[in-house]
Design brief:
single chain, 370 residues, mainly beta, 4-stranded antiparallel sheet, 4 helices, 46% strand
C-alpha cells in the first residue's frame, strides 16, 4: 500500500507540475549593460555565452561579466577594436588594428584572446590582407576571414585553433558563425550559405538577397530574406534542408538574428504603421519580447527594439530605447526572471513534503484528500 501511495503522489505532483509550467511563458528582467550603451541605434555589444557574459566594443574590446564591464588589456594588438565572439570558457575573438601607417598597417587584424593573453593572428595567416575573427565555438575553434592582398579580396575562409591556422580553400564566403561541429554559416554573393566541408546555398528564392545570421549545433540556421522587388524583409529558419519563413509581428518586416540549441529564435520585427520590437520564436510561436517583461523588471521603461543573441541558458542580448521625441538607446541583457511558485511549484513542494512524511509513517490517503 505504501509503495502505491508514493507512486500516486509522484504521479499527481508530476501532472500538476508539468501541465501549467509547459504553458507558461518565460518572463525577463531587463539589465542595462554598463559601458556598452548603444548610440543612435548603433550597438556596442556583439555576442554572449551561456554564463551571461557579453563581449563587444567600439575602439576598445569590452567584456561584461558579473554585473560590471571592463576594458580588456592587449599586448599584441595596438588598437583592439571589438570582440565579436565568446564561448563558455571565456575565449574571445575579434579584430583590431596595428596603428602603423600605410594601407597594410591600418588593415584589420584578427585576434584570439584567452586567459588574459591575446594572439594577433595576422602573422599566422597565409594572406597579407585584412583579417577578421567572427566567431568561436566551444572547443576554441575560431572562424576567420582573410583578404588575399593588402588592397582587398578575394576573401579566404580559414579556421584557427590551438595555434594552428587551416585554410579551407574557399573564397568569396563571408562567415557569420561557427558551431561546435565546425560548420560555418555565412553569405556568398548576397545569398545565405553553409559550409560543412563544402559550400551549400540554402536555397532562398532567386533574385532575393538573403543573410545567414545565426546557427546552432543541429545546423539549424536563421536569418532574413529581402525581397528583390519590394525590399521587404522576412525572417526564416533553415532546418533539414528546408526554408520556413517565420512571418512578422506587425505585418511588414522581420529579421531573425540568433538561434540556440533549444531551437529558440530571436530577432526583430518592424512596421511602417505601428511600433516594432524584438521577438522570441519558440515552438513555432512568435512573441513580442516587450510582453514578456516581468513586473518591475524594466525600471527604465525601455522598449526592447532588437534581440540579436540568445544562449541555451535563456539570456537574450539586445537593444532598448526610451520612447519620445528624443530617444536614448541602451544595450540590454534580458535575464530569465525567477518565477514565483505557482500551481506547478506548489504541487512539487507539497508532493516532496508528503513523501518525506509518508516515510515517517504519519500521512494517509485521507490527509492527502484534505
Amino acid at each position: 500500500m505504501g509503495g502505491r501511495l508514493i507512486s500516486s503522489l509522484i504521479l499527481t505532483g508530476a501532472i500538476l507540475a508539468t501541465a501549467p509550467c509547459a504553458l507558461a511563458a518565460t518572463e525577463y528582467d531587463v539589465i542595462d549593460l554598463p559601458g556598452m550603451n548603444a548610440s543612435n541605434g548603433f550597438n556596442y555589444a556583439r555576442a554572449l555565452n551561456d554564463l551571461g557574459q557579453v563581449v563587444g566594443g567600439n575602439s576598445h574590446v569590452l567584456l561584461y561579466s558579473g554585473g560590471t564591464t571592463q576594458e580588456l588589456d592587449f599586448q599584441n594588438i595596438a588598437i583592439p577594436t571589438v570582440g565579436t565572439g565568446i564561448n563558455d570558457s571565456g575565449q574571445i575573438v575579434g579584430f583590431g588594428f596595428s596603428g602603423q601607417s600605410g594601407k597594410a598597417g591600418q588593415a584589420s587584424q584578427a585576434f584570439f584572446y584567452s586567459n588574459g593573453t591575446d594572439a594577433n593572428l595576422a602573422s599566422l595567416l597565409p594572406y597579407p590582407g585584412a583579417s577578421w575573427a567572427h566567431s568561436v565555438n566551444a572547443s576554441g575553434e575560431a572562424v576567420v576571414e582573410n583578404y588575399e592582398t593588402v588592397n582587398g579580396g578575394p576573401d579566404h575562409l580559414l579556421t584557427y585553433q590551438n595555434g594552428i591556422v587551416t585554410d579551407l580553400h574557399v573564397t568569396g564566403f563571408s562567415p557569420t558563425i561557427i558551431n561546435d561541429l565546425g560548420h560555418i554559416a555565412g553569405t556568398v554573393n548576397q545569398r545565405a550559405s553553409f559550409y560543412d566541408g563544402q559550400v551549400h546555398d540554402l536555397g532562398t528564392p532567386a533574385g532575393d538577397v538573403s543573410v545567414a545570421s545565426g546557427m546552432n549545433n543541429s545546423d539549424q540556421i536563421v536569418g532574413y530574406i529581402r525581397d528583390g522587388s519590394t525590399g521587404a524583409a522576412s525572417a526564416y529558419l533553415y532546418s533539414n534542408g528546408a526554408i520556413t519563413e517565420l512571418g512578422t509581428l506587425h505585418g511588414d518586416n522581420s529579421y531573425a538574428y540568433a538561434i540556440n540549441n533549444l531551437g529558440q529564435i530571436v530577432g526583430s520585427s518592424d512596421s511602417n504603421v505601428v511600433l516594432g520590437g524584438a521577438f522570441i520564436d519558440s515552438n513555432d510561436q512568435m512573441t513580442d519580447l516587450n510582453t514578456l517583461i516581468a513586473p518591475g523588471g524594466n525600471p527604465q521603461g525601455l522598449h526592447i527594439d532588437d534581440a540579436f543573441g540568445i544562449s541555451d541558458s535563456g539570456y537574450i542580448l539586445g537593444t532598448g530605447s526610451t520612447l519620445g521625441p528624443s530617444p536614448t538607446y541602451e544595450t540590454v541583457l534580458l535575464v530569465p526572471a525567477t518565477p514565483e511558485p505557482g500551481a506547478c511549484g506548489i504541487a512539487l513542494i507539497a508532493t516532496a513534503g508528503l513523501l518525506r512524511r509518508r516515510r515517517a509513517g504519519d500521512v494517509s490517503l485521507v490527509s492527502l484528500v484534505k
